[in-house]
Protein backbone atom coordinates (compact mmCIF):
# COMPACT_ATOMS: atom_id res chain seq x y z
CA UNK A 1 0.00 0.00 0.00
CA UNK A 2 1.17 3.51 -0.75
CA UNK A 3 -0.42 4.78 2.42
CA UNK A 4 2.46 3.88 4.69
CA UNK A 5 4.74 6.65 3.41
CA UNK A 6 2.00 9.21 2.70
CA UNK A 7 0.08 11.52 4.97
CA UNK A 8 -3.15 11.50 3.00
CA UNK A 9 -4.61 10.64 -0.37
CA UNK A 10 -7.48 12.83 -1.56
CA UNK A 11 -9.63 11.96 -4.51
CA UNK A 12 -11.67 14.51 -6.47
CA UNK A 13 -14.79 13.39 -8.30
CA UNK A 14 -17.07 15.62 -10.32
CA UNK A 15 -18.40 16.33 -13.79
CA UNK A 16 -16.25 17.95 -16.45
CA UNK A 17 -15.75 21.56 -15.36
CA UNK A 18 -16.81 20.90 -11.75
CA UNK A 19 -13.51 22.36 -10.54
CA UNK A 20 -11.37 19.28 -9.86
CA UNK A 21 -8.28 20.75 -11.51
CA UNK A 22 -8.75 24.11 -9.77
CA UNK A 23 -8.94 22.52 -6.30
CA UNK A 24 -6.07 20.14 -7.06
CA UNK A 25 -3.91 23.04 -8.28
CA UNK A 26 -4.72 24.89 -5.07
CA UNK A 27 -3.71 21.91 -2.88
CA UNK A 28 -0.53 21.53 -4.93
CA UNK A 29 0.50 25.19 -4.81
CA UNK A 30 -0.58 26.04 -1.26
CA UNK A 31 0.11 22.76 0.53
CA UNK A 32 2.60 20.90 -1.65
CA UNK A 33 0.34 18.01 -2.62
CA UNK A 34 1.48 15.76 -5.42
CA UNK A 35 -1.18 16.42 -8.07
CA UNK A 36 -1.97 13.62 -10.45
CA UNK A 37 -4.40 14.51 -13.23
CA UNK A 38 -5.08 11.75 -15.73
CA UNK A 39 -6.58 14.18 -18.26
CA UNK A 40 -3.38 16.21 -18.19
CA UNK A 41 -1.23 13.08 -18.57
CA UNK A 42 -3.29 12.07 -21.59
CA UNK A 43 -3.05 15.55 -23.11
CA UNK A 44 0.73 15.33 -22.81
CA UNK A 45 0.72 12.00 -24.64
CA UNK A 46 -1.36 13.50 -27.46
CA UNK A 47 1.48 15.92 -28.22
CA UNK A 48 3.70 13.02 -29.27
CA UNK A 49 3.83 11.80 -32.83
CA UNK A 50 2.64 8.24 -32.35
CA UNK A 51 -0.21 5.87 -33.03
CA UNK A 52 -1.12 5.93 -29.34
CA UNK A 53 -1.18 9.75 -29.33
CA UNK A 54 -3.61 9.83 -32.27
CA UNK A 55 -5.78 7.17 -30.67
CA UNK A 56 -6.03 9.08 -27.38
CA UNK A 57 -6.67 12.36 -29.16
CA UNK A 58 -9.65 10.83 -30.95
CA UNK A 59 -11.06 9.40 -27.71
CA UNK A 60 -10.71 12.70 -25.83
CA UNK A 61 -12.25 14.73 -28.64
CA UNK A 62 -15.15 12.27 -28.82
CA UNK A 63 -15.75 12.85 -25.10
CA UNK A 64 -15.18 9.17 -24.30
CA UNK A 65 -13.03 7.60 -21.60
CA UNK A 66 -9.66 6.10 -22.40
CA UNK A 67 -9.60 2.34 -21.74
CA UNK A 68 -9.12 1.20 -18.15
CA UNK A 69 -6.00 -0.91 -18.72
CA UNK A 70 -4.00 1.97 -20.15
CA UNK A 71 -5.36 4.47 -17.61
CA UNK A 72 -4.66 2.22 -14.62
CA UNK A 73 -1.13 1.50 -15.79
CA UNK A 74 -0.43 5.20 -16.29
CA UNK A 75 -1.67 6.03 -12.81
CA UNK A 76 0.25 3.26 -11.11
CA UNK A 77 3.47 4.22 -12.92
CA UNK A 78 3.04 7.82 -11.78
CA UNK A 79 2.16 7.00 -8.18
CA UNK A 80 4.48 4.24 -7.15
CA UNK A 81 7.62 5.48 -5.48
CA UNK A 82 6.40 9.05 -5.06
CA UNK A 83 8.01 10.73 -2.11
CA UNK A 84 5.30 13.39 -1.78
CA UNK A 85 3.56 13.30 1.56
CA UNK A 86 0.10 14.13 0.29
CA UNK A 87 -1.51 13.15 -2.97
CA UNK A 88 -4.50 14.58 -4.81
CA UNK A 89 -6.03 12.52 -7.61
CA UNK A 90 -7.88 14.63 -10.17
CA UNK A 91 -10.06 12.79 -12.68
CA UNK A 92 -9.16 9.29 -11.56
CA UNK A 93 -10.85 6.93 -10.89
CA UNK A 94 -13.71 7.52 -13.32
CA UNK A 95 -15.51 4.21 -12.90
CA UNK A 96 -15.74 1.31 -10.46
CA UNK A 97 -13.22 -0.80 -12.38
CA UNK A 98 -10.60 1.93 -11.94
CA UNK A 99 -11.58 2.42 -8.30
CA UNK A 100 -11.14 -1.28 -7.55
CA UNK A 101 -7.79 -1.28 -9.29
CA UNK A 102 -6.62 1.74 -7.28
CA UNK A 103 -7.85 0.16 -4.08
CA UNK A 104 -5.38 -2.70 -4.56
CA UNK A 105 -2.33 -0.50 -4.04
CA UNK A 106 -3.48 2.83 -2.60
CA UNK A 107 -5.56 3.64 0.46
CA UNK A 108 -7.83 6.64 -0.10
CA UNK A 109 -8.55 8.91 2.85
CA UNK A 110 -11.03 11.41 1.41
CA UNK A 111 -13.32 11.44 -1.60
CA UNK A 112 -14.75 14.85 -2.47
CA UNK A 113 -17.50 14.94 -5.06
CA UNK A 114 -17.75 18.46 -6.49
CA UNK A 115 -21.39 18.95 -7.46
CA UNK A 116 -22.18 21.86 -9.77
CA UNK A 117 -25.27 22.58 -11.90
CA UNK A 118 -24.98 21.76 -15.59
CA UNK A 119 -25.62 25.29 -16.89
CA UNK A 120 -22.77 26.60 -14.72
CA UNK A 121 -20.51 23.77 -15.84
CA UNK A 122 -21.03 24.60 -19.51
CA UNK A 123 -20.24 28.29 -18.95
CA UNK A 124 -17.15 27.34 -16.95
CA UNK A 125 -15.82 25.04 -19.63
CA UNK A 126 -16.52 27.46 -22.48
CA UNK A 127 -14.70 30.17 -20.52
CA UNK A 128 -11.74 28.04 -19.44
CA UNK A 129 -8.24 29.04 -20.53
CA UNK A 130 -5.05 27.24 -19.50
CA UNK A 131 -1.39 28.13 -19.34
CA UNK A 132 0.34 25.48 -21.49
CA UNK A 133 3.53 25.90 -19.46
CA UNK A 134 2.52 25.77 -15.78
CA UNK A 135 -1.06 24.44 -16.32
CA UNK A 136 -2.65 27.20 -14.22
CA UNK A 137 -6.37 27.30 -14.95
CA UNK A 138 -8.15 30.59 -15.69
CA UNK A 139 -11.61 31.58 -16.80
CA UNK A 140 -12.71 34.50 -18.95
CA UNK A 141 -15.84 34.88 -16.79
CA UNK A 142 -14.80 33.76 -13.31
CA UNK A 143 -11.04 33.86 -12.94
CA UNK A 144 -9.44 36.35 -15.28
CA UNK A 145 -5.67 36.64 -15.57
CA UNK A 146 -4.17 40.00 -14.61
CA UNK A 147 -3.13 40.63 -18.21
CA UNK A 148 -5.66 39.64 -20.88
CA UNK A 149 -5.04 36.06 -22.09
CA UNK A 150 -1.61 35.78 -20.45
CA UNK A 151 -0.54 33.65 -17.50
CA UNK A 152 0.00 35.54 -14.24
CA UNK A 153 3.08 33.47 -13.47
CA UNK A 154 5.08 32.90 -16.67
CA UNK A 155 3.22 35.41 -18.92
CA UNK A 156 2.72 32.80 -21.62
CA UNK A 157 -0.32 33.14 -23.91
CA UNK A 158 -3.22 31.09 -22.58
CA UNK A 159 -4.82 28.35 -24.64
CA UNK A 160 -8.22 26.67 -24.91
CA UNK A 161 -8.39 22.88 -24.66
CA UNK A 162 -9.36 21.05 -27.88
CA UNK A 163 -12.13 19.21 -26.02
CA UNK A 164 -13.67 22.41 -24.66
CA UNK A 165 -16.17 22.82 -27.49
CA UNK A 166 -19.89 22.83 -26.82
CA UNK A 167 -20.34 19.63 -28.84
CA UNK A 168 -17.63 17.72 -26.94
CA UNK A 169 -18.79 19.07 -23.57
CA UNK A 170 -22.20 17.47 -24.12
CA UNK A 171 -20.57 14.14 -24.98
CA UNK A 172 -18.27 14.35 -21.93
CA UNK A 173 -21.25 15.01 -19.69
CA UNK A 174 -23.08 11.99 -21.14
CA UNK A 175 -20.05 9.80 -20.51
CA UNK A 176 -19.71 11.14 -16.97
CA UNK A 177 -23.36 10.33 -16.19
CA UNK A 178 -22.94 6.74 -17.38
CA UNK A 179 -20.22 5.93 -14.87
CA UNK A 180 -20.54 8.31 -11.96
CA UNK A 181 -23.36 6.93 -9.79
CA UNK A 182 -21.84 3.45 -9.29
CA UNK A 183 -18.57 5.15 -8.38
CA UNK A 184 -20.33 7.35 -5.82
CA UNK A 185 -22.05 4.28 -4.33
CA UNK A 186 -18.72 2.45 -4.17
CA UNK A 187 -17.12 5.22 -2.08
CA UNK A 188 -20.26 5.83 0.00
CA UNK A 189 -20.09 2.19 1.10
CA UNK A 190 -16.50 2.74 2.17
CA UNK A 191 -17.60 5.69 4.32
CA UNK A 192 -15.13 8.17 2.84
CA UNK A 193 -17.45 9.97 0.40
CA UNK A 194 -18.31 13.65 0.88
CA UNK A 195 -20.59 15.62 -1.43
CA UNK A 196 -19.44 19.22 -1.84
CA UNK A 197 -21.84 21.87 -3.09
CA UNK A 198 -20.20 25.07 -1.92
CA UNK A 199 -18.35 27.36 -4.32
CA UNK A 200 -15.59 29.95 -4.32
CA UNK A 201 -13.86 30.87 -1.07
CA UNK A 202 -16.33 28.86 1.04
CA UNK A 203 -15.50 25.73 -0.93
CA UNK A 204 -11.79 26.17 -0.29
CA UNK A 205 -12.42 26.82 3.41
CA UNK A 206 -14.57 23.69 3.69
CA UNK A 207 -11.90 21.52 2.09
CA UNK A 208 -9.14 23.00 4.27
CA UNK A 209 -11.28 22.34 7.33
CA UNK A 210 -12.04 18.72 6.47
CA UNK A 211 -8.40 18.02 5.63
CA UNK A 212 -7.26 19.92 8.76
CA UNK A 213 -4.81 22.00 6.73
P1 LIG B 1 -10.01 15.71 -17.69
O1 LIG B 1 -8.89 16.60 -18.05
O2 LIG B 1 -9.99 15.02 -16.37
O3 LIG B 1 -11.34 16.51 -17.91
P2 LIG B 1 -12.74 16.51 -17.14
O4 LIG B 1 -13.01 15.45 -16.18
O5 LIG B 1 -13.71 16.64 -18.26
O6 LIG B 1 -12.62 17.69 -16.21
P3 LIG B 1 -12.15 19.12 -16.59
O7 LIG B 1 -10.67 19.17 -16.62
O8 LIG B 1 -12.87 19.59 -17.83
O9 LIG B 1 -12.77 19.97 -15.42
P4 LIG B 1 -12.33 20.19 -13.92
O10 LIG B 1 -13.35 19.56 -13.04
O11 LIG B 1 -10.90 19.88 -13.68
O12 LIG B 1 -12.58 21.76 -13.85
P5 LIG B 1 -11.53 22.98 -13.76
O13 LIG B 1 -10.95 23.07 -12.40
O14 LIG B 1 -10.61 22.99 -14.92
O15 LIG B 1 -10.14 14.56 -18.77
C1 LIG B 1 -10.08 14.84 -20.16
C2 LIG B 1 -10.27 13.55 -20.93
O16 LIG B 1 -9.18 12.63 -20.63
C3 LIG B 1 -11.53 12.75 -20.61
O17 LIG B 1 -12.65 13.21 -21.32
C4 LIG B 1 -11.10 11.33 -21.00
O18 LIG B 1 -11.14 11.14 -22.39
C5 LIG B 1 -9.65 11.29 -20.54
N1 LIG B 1 -9.51 10.81 -19.15
C6 LIG B 1 -9.10 11.54 -18.07
N2 LIG B 1 -9.10 10.80 -16.97
C7 LIG B 1 -9.53 9.56 -17.34
C8 LIG B 1 -9.75 8.36 -16.64
N3 LIG B 1 -9.56 8.26 -15.31
N4 LIG B 1 -10.20 7.29 -17.33
C9 LIG B 1 -10.39 7.34 -18.66
N5 LIG B 1 -10.21 8.46 -19.39
C10 LIG B 1 -9.78 9.57 -18.73
O19 LIG B 1 -12.58 24.19 -13.88
C11 LIG B 1 -13.26 24.45 -15.08
C12 LIG B 1 -13.35 25.97 -15.27
O20 LIG B 1 -14.19 26.50 -14.26
C13 LIG B 1 -12.01 26.71 -15.16
O21 LIG B 1 -11.95 27.74 -16.10
C14 LIG B 1 -12.01 27.28 -13.73
O22 LIG B 1 -11.29 28.51 -13.65
C15 LIG B 1 -13.49 27.48 -13.47
N6 LIG B 1 -13.84 27.23 -12.08
C16 LIG B 1 -13.44 26.19 -11.32
N7 LIG B 1 -13.96 26.28 -10.09
C17 LIG B 1 -14.72 27.41 -10.08
C18 LIG B 1 -15.53 28.05 -9.11
N8 LIG B 1 -15.67 27.53 -7.88
N9 LIG B 1 -16.17 29.17 -9.45
C19 LIG B 1 -16.04 29.69 -10.70
N10 LIG B 1 -15.28 29.16 -11.67
C20 LIG B 1 -14.63 28.01 -11.37
- Heteromolecules bound: BIS(adenosine)-5'-pentaphosphate
Look at the helices and sheets and give the structural class.
alpha/beta
* SSE order, one letter for each helix or strand: EHEHHHEHEHEEHEH
How many beta strands in the DSSP annotation? 7
Q: If you compute it from the alpha carbons, what radius of gyration comes out, rounded to the nearest whole angstrom?
A: 17 Å
Please give the alpha-carbon distance between the first and last residues.
24 Å
Q: What fraction, in percent, of the residue positions are helical?
A: 40-55%
Can you tell me about this structure?
With 213 residues, the protein is an alpha/beta fold. The protein has a domain of 144 residues: Rossmann fold (3-Layer(aba) Sandwich). It is built from eight helices and seven strands. The strands form two sheets. It has a five-stranded parallel beta sheet, sandwiched between helices. Strands 5-6 form a two-stranded antiparallel ribbon. Strand 5 and strand 6 form a beta hairpin. Helix 4 runs parallel beside helix 5. The chain is globular, with a radius of gyration of 17 Å. The two termini are 24 Å apart. The N terminus is likely disordered. The structure holds BIS(adenosine)-5'-pentaphosphate. BIS(adenosine)-5'-pentaphosphate binds next to helix 1, helix 2, helix 3, helix 6 and strand 6.
Compile the SSE list and pairings.
Elements: E1 8-14, H1 20-31, E2 34-37, H2 38-46, H3 51-61, H4 68-79, E3 86-90, H5 96-105, E4 110-114, H6 118-127, E5 128-130, E6 137-139, H7 166-190, E7 193-196, H8 200-211
Parallel strand pairs: 1-3, 1-4, 2-3, 4-7
Antiparallel strand pairs: 5-6
Helix pairs in contact: 2-3, 4-5
The structure holds BIS(adenosine)-5'-pentaphosphate.
BIS(adenosine)-5'-pentaphosphate (AP5) binds at residues 14, 16-22, 38-39, 42, 59-60, 63-66, 71, 91-94, 98, 124-125, 127-128, 137-139, 142-143, 172, 199-200, 203.
